[in-house]
């Protein structure tokens, strides 16, 4: 979870191997307050059943085009979510998270939390 205003990491979660985003969210202990707005990407299709205040991009109907209004809504959502994607990119600059992890799995969560904390500190106190 990333705060889109400050680009700070609120919570990080990890799964064993390849895990779908929504499944990882369900298995994590982190929950949003019902009044908090959640801006998610299409990896979280179905999250609206669990959290009412979720905004997802609209999908194109099969063999039809997306109406212009929904295209504009998707573009507006993408313009807000770009800060979240940039925060994820900052984390993936560390190759340990963008490539195959070859060290002990037991230390992976510790390293993930440490680097997220460092990036939060850097977001508050820019160099």
Polypeptide structure, described:
With 127 residues, this protein is mostly helical. It has one domain. It has four helices and four strands. The strands form two sheets. Strands 1-2 form a two-stranded antiparallel ribbon. A two-stranded parallel ribbon has the order 3-4. It is globular, with a radius of gyration of 16 Å. It starts with a strand and ends with a helix. The mean pLDDT is 85.
Topology, element by element:
Elements: E1 2-3, E2 8-9, H1 21-27, E3 38-39, E4 54-55, H2 68-92, H3 95-98, H4 108-124
Parallel strand pairs: 3-4
Antiparallel strand pairs: 1-2
Task: Give a quick rundown of the structure.
With 127 residues, the chain is mainly alpha-helical.
Kindly state the number of beta strands.
4
Strand content: 5-15%
Number of helical elements? 4
Distance between the termini: 24 Å
| Helix/strand structural class | mainly alpha
Radius of gyration, rounded? 16 Å
